[in-house]
Amino acid sequence: MNLEPANPRTNLPLAEQDVHREREEEARKIRRLQLMISMVTSVISQDPNLSLQEASELAAGAKRAALAMFPDKELAYDLLYKPRLQRLIRERFRLQ
User: Fold this and answer.
1) Domain ranges of the chain
2) pLDDT tens track, the chain, 96 positions
3) Other beta carbons less than 10 A from residue 1's beta carbon
4) CA max distance for the chain
5) Residue 48: strand, helix, or coil
6) What pTM was estimated for this model as a whole?
7) What is the DSSP letter of 5?
8) Distances (CA, A) of 88 to 51, 56, 69
9) Cβ distance 92 to 47 under 8 Å?
10) Is residue 49 helix, strand or coil?
11) Angle subtended by helix axes 52-69 and 82-93, to nearest 10
12) Contact 12/20 with Cβ under 8 angstroms?
């Protein structure tokens, strides 16, 4: 006797399964981006040997990676993450 619950997605039409897979992939990419930004902010704020140049390179690399995952979302990146990273760099290196 099979006691495992049936997978509800296998009963969906193929088009709905594709939409569900796309949503799951989008959620994975968003989580990956959030984790990456979290790691970058941690390094910028906590590494005592990090130079201003290296911090700027980390921020630029984060933007490149984000745009590679979400090519059409540069405005969203500039609104959500860019100000956070700029503020962190200003505070960390006491810039005006």
Assistant:
1) 13-93
2) 556 555 555 677 888 888 999 999 999 999 999 999 999 999 999 999 999 999 999 999 999 999 999 999 999 999 999 999 999 999 999 997
3) 2
4) 69
5) coil
6) 0.80
7) P
8) 13, 11, 23
9) no
10) coil
11) 170
12) yes
